[in-house]
């Protein structure tokens, strides 16, 4: 084992983590505040009526909800359930992870030596999000797009006399797995055992967290502090682990793979883009800190490929797809992924060939 090689890799790993951690903590802090204290359904009153204007407004919402792709899904799900058109939610989902002040600032810190990439990232992310949102607006029947549970909630909320909700879900996270579906006792927020023979759904704490923030009744003020602390702890645990893993992979690639290999493929206008897009989808690193990951490849990969990583990853990665499955049907997500891939590839190629 070559000790200097591993020492260099560990130094690179630490540098990425140290640079990115303050922005991760800032993003988690704001994400928790917004998830607990902001009612996204109230934004419906301010949305314009036309499809183009509403798609633009949906993309711009991210600037007021500075959360990464981990935190914007509950907001988007609630918007759809409250009657916001799905194409607005699509524009918000795709634009919010980049078009927000935290990510813009972290990207500028990482790429101060290449400010054009900061501008391209903002413009491409916003433009692609709005374009895909407009394409989704052409779908007249919403049922083929939406997850069955979301469609049922939407129908129930739009009904003149909505049926009473049979159960009440606790907004508090609970460890491990537990049973959901029974009626809680009077004055109790904890789930209670259901009568024998009733049909229950086993949910993990992750699933309960998503449903609680997306569709549960308003959280009482006396519980908001507890929910806020649990939200912060959960996001630090999950996003921090992704940051550590992504930083380790970046350091490993930079130190173990021969530099000649990276130069051969990293400088190819098309292959470099495909490599970085695949890497973005697999690593699923948070958009708050992904610019620092991309920066570690700046010496060996083309500008277009770095841009593709920072545009495609926040919109479409394994983590984001998993979250989208709670809002859209798989077919809708497939179209969303394909459209995002095509738009990003064309834009990144244009940067490599014409961006200088």
TrEMBL record:
Record keyword Metal-binding present: no
Keywords of this entry: Cell membrane, Membrane, Transmembrane, Transmembrane helix
Protein localization: Cell membrane
Stretches that traverse the bilayer: 12-35, 55-76, 88-111, 117-138, 239-257, 269-286, 293-312, 332-354
Top-level taxonomic group: Bacteria
Classification via InterPro entries: DUF318, UPF0718
Membrane topology qualifier: Multi-pass membrane protein
Keyword Zinc: no
PANTHER family recorded: UPF0718 PROTEIN YCGR
Family per similarity comment: Belongs to the UPF0718 family.
Protein name (database record): Permease
């Amino acid at each position: 084992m070559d000790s200097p090689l591993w020492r260099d890799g560990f130094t690179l790993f630490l540098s990425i983590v140290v640079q990115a951690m303050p922005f991760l903590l800032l993003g988690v802090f704001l994400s928790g505040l917004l998830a607990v204290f902001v009612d996204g359904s109230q934004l419906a009153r301010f949305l314009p009526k036309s499809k183009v204007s509403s798609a633009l407004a949906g993309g711009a919402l991210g600037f007021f909800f500075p959360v990464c792709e981990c935190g914007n899904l509950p907001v988007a799900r609630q918007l759809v359930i409250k009657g916001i058109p799905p194409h607005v939610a699509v524009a918000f989902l795709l634009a919010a992870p980049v078009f927000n002040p935290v990510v813009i600032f972290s990207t500028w810190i990482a790429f101060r030596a290449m400010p054009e990439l900061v501008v391209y990232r903002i413009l491409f992310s916003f433009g692609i999000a709005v374009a895909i949102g407009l394409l989704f607006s052409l779908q007249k029947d919403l049922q083929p797009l939406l997850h069955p549970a979301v469609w049922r909630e939407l129908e129930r909320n739009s009904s003149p006399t909505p049926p009473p909700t049979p159960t009440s879900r606790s907004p508090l996270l609970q460890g491990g797995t537990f049973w959901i579906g029974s009626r809680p006792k009077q004055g109790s927020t904890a789930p209670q055992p259901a009568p024998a023979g009733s049909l229950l759904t086993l949910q993990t704490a992750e699933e309960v967290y998503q449903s609680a923030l997306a569709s549960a009744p308003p959280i009482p003020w006396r519980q908001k502090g507890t929910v806020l602390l649990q939200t912060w702890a959960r996001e630090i645990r999950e996003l921090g682990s992704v940051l550590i893993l992504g930083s380790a992979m970046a350091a490993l690639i930079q130190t173990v793979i021969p530099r000649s290999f990276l130069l051969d493929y990293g400088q190819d206008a098309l292959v470099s883009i495909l490599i970085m897009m695949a890497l973005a989808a697999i690593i699923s690193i948070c958009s708050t800190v992904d610019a620092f990951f991309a920066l570690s490849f700046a010496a060996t990969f083309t500008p277009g490929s770095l841009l593709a990583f920072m545009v495609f990853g926040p919109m479409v990665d394994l983590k984001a797809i998993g979250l989208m499955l709670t809002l859209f049907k798989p077919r809708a997500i497939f179209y969303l992924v394909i459209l995002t891939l095509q738009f990003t590839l064309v834009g990144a190629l244009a940067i490599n060939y014409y961006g200088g």
